[in-house]
User: What shape does this take?
Amino acid sequence: MVRYSLIIFSLAFLICVIASVVINLIYGYDIVYTHLFYIPIILAGLWYPRLAVIVAAILGAVHITCDYISIKTFQAGPFLRTVMFISVAYVISHLTMERNRYYNELEMLNNAMLDMITKVKTDGKIEYISPSVKNLLGYAPEELIGKDFFDLVHPDETEKIKDSFQKAVETMAPCVVEHRLLSSSGEYIWIESMGNPILDNKDGINIYVFGSRDITLRKKAEEELKYLSIHDALTGLYNRFMFEEELNRLKTGRFDPVGIIICDIDGLKIINDNLGHSAGDKLLIKSAEILKEQCRTSDILARIGGDEFAILIQECTERKLENVCSRIKKAFAERNISETDTRLFISIGCAMGNAKDFSIDEILKEADENMYQEKAKNRKDVLDALGELIRESKRQV
Assistant: This one.
């Protein structure tokens, strides 16, 4: 563009100089051709504003010189027209420089913005995207101009964005949508976009303009909070809140029969009081690992209290319930044989029923009562074993 503008300006300037010489010196006219001078003056004011006044002065000097050579005297007319040339050049160059300053400031602000500004046509083609796309997604702006915006959008969220755009058109209000965009590294980045539809002169939607910012850290924090809200921090299992949510879900009877297993880690308080809470925490973590190994992915395993765990089994049978309980007891027994430094003792109670016939709470209560019955039977053996374990630990210290 710069090369072509220079050629056009140079041709216009030379034509005016030649016309001045030919028309003035050969034909003796001193006014008609001067109208042509405004062409290079205006072009200089638009393209080369700092040179516009100089160009006007040169053309004025050519006009005065040719007029003098033609009539052998100086007249006021050429001087007045030269003043007009310079005045026009000054005004146009001043307006051009003000415009350029304004656009340079806008560009500077645009380049400094962390948010990405995008203009998308109604057919989905990207018409403009700000330089901040380099920091946000890793692309140079020219890589995306003319590309389909929805090629960058995660496939699961394409319809959500289109629906949001349509709602913005119907309400003529900004839309805010969270979605993922494909980065140059091939990973999807979480983005929050606020967009506005822009109308053309016929009140039709011509383009969408929206600003986008990276919310990956916020989404990760939200996911972590969501995880912590339903998981036990120590064992990583579901917590009591999630357990109760699952109980409510099973109340519909859709997954009948429902089996419930309640597990209590025996002697945890004794371990905490004598060997410290860190030893008790290790015992809970190991117990959770063993229980998780004995459950299917469809079973709901949760830590519902300090030393209590619960398992929900959907579409359960008596045989399945008995097998799970047997596997748990066997796994704890095998662990106590292979690792004698600390022993794990567990009491188990289970119950099964149809939620549509019985209250889930009744099934839970029955399993809890069965667990306490087993706990009472095991109490003496557990106390004896833990007493020996504590004495051995203190001798080693």
